[in-house]
Design a protein that fits this description.
76 residues; mainly alpha; two-stranded antiparallel ribbon; 3 helices; 2 strands
Length: 76
């Protein structure tokens, strides 16, 4: 079974950085979505990595994914 997230080694290879702070800076600078685990580890979805490196259309959420819309404001 494939892991859901990139391994620490794969993250180092992707970013070219060994330290988490620099890895986060690289990810931010290059617009890669990631999450920070409670342990402080950076989590990059493997599927997003594959999609981005192969040019496939990604299904990564956008910054608007958490937005709630006010549909009651639309007049019928």
């Amino acid at each position: 079974m494939t892991e859901t997230y990139l391994s620490p080694q794969e993250l180092r290879e992707l970013t070219g950085c060994a330290h988490r702070t620099r890895q986060r800076a690289w990810l931010d600078r290059n617009s890669w979505p990631y999450a920070i685990a409670e342990t402080g580890h950076i989590r990059v979805l493997r599927q997003y990595w594959l999609d981005r490196l192969t040019g496939a259309k990604s299904t990564a959420p956008t910054v608007h994914a958490g937005t709630r819309h006010n549909f009651s404001a639309i007049a019928a």
